[in-house]
Amino acid sequence: MSRPEHLAPPEIYYNEEEAKKYSQNSRIIDIQFQMSERAVELLVLPEDTPCYILDIGCGSGLSGSTLDDQGHFWVGMDISKAMLDIALEREIEGDLILSDMGQGCPFKAGAFDGAISISALQWLCNADKKHHNPVQRLYKFFSTLYACLSRSGRAVLQFYPENSDQMELITAQAMKAGFYGGVVVDYPNSTKAKKFFLVLMTGGNMPLPKALGTDEDSQGVTYTAKRERLKQQRGKSLKKGRNWILEKKERRRKQGKDVRPDSKYTGRKRSGRL
Amino acid sequence: MKLLTHNMLTSKCMKGVSIGYPLAIKALDIRTVEVDFNPEFVAKMIPKIDWTVLHGAAESIGQTDLPKEVVDNYENNEEFLKKVHHVLLEVDVIDGELICPETGRKFPINNGIPNMLLNEDEV
Ligand SMILES: C[S@@+](CC[C@H](N)C(=O)[O-])C[C@H]1O[C@@H](n2cnc3c(N)ncnc32)[C@H](O)[C@@H]1O
Question: Which keywords appear in this protein's UniProt record, sorted alphabetically (chain B) (predicted)?
């Protein structure tokens, strides 16, 4: 299958028809949710505090719903009006901006506690217009992203690199912009489940979080079990725990809002030792 | 567009603009949406917000209830936090435009979404 980035520029490719899939196709919706939840986990936000997050290439707001569910507030930017229209239809809680990430993140310094981006970054590697220079656009994007994050804020960007050159190109521009970090590859041995997360840190070089599904815990099961135990040891606060989220979702369902089904990921906590 | 977003938004990505902040608001349609009150979030955002800009923006669109200055000990002042909550999150500019303070470039707001896309010669 050819890559969507090769077919048309994003604002054309993500037309009304394509955008509809992001509110109707349950397979797409499930995958986007899972990756969003993993991205938020990799952000390692402070425990139990509502944060202010930027969602880059937010599309119809599926990734944003994950942030809503966890009690965070967010702003989404996207280049496709059709996708943002679906987000409005879904009555997401975040605020939306029509903008091109390759032109930079138009926010003042230190605005956000963190940023996520799900399945959007690979679009920047393409030159869709005569005047587009991917290296320059990537650098503009990363340098303005760096500036609008608060100190110690992280950005986690799930993307589909076309090849290793592209991965290097992206990582190099991120580092040049001042970020530390690198790519975490979850389930590297599975063609289907394999996912790339560019984890970017601002406050100094910290070890990269551990990938899921690597040899040590090939199923990711023992890992989750450990995580659950740790959570119990720590004791849970009443707010933002799984129950709090389930209740909030129930409230929103009653209001007739579009709420996604509860899953094993709902309210799952970060372990602090990813 | 919420005023919280406005407080963060700049036109600095435009060629030749150095700060691009604050953007002036011309509001043609303003609505109020109900948002769950989260005192913890509002209190956490106060130090990040440029208060003068928030106050000015609120007044410019007819929201005159916001105190001119942040009160002391605001974390425990529910009445104050509720006012801030309302202005930051519940007032929504649906149609209008944002204006760059340095170039006068206008960014339209349609359906509550500011269009910050730049033309080729502006990047
Ligand atoms: C695969 S969709 C994912 C949407 C959303 N993050 C989700 O998980 O459902 C990719 C999105 O990236 C957006 N995008 C692509 N290039 C972009 C750019 N240069 N600036 C902003 N958004 C862009 C597209 O418009 C599209 O909505």
Answer: Cytoplasm, Nucleus
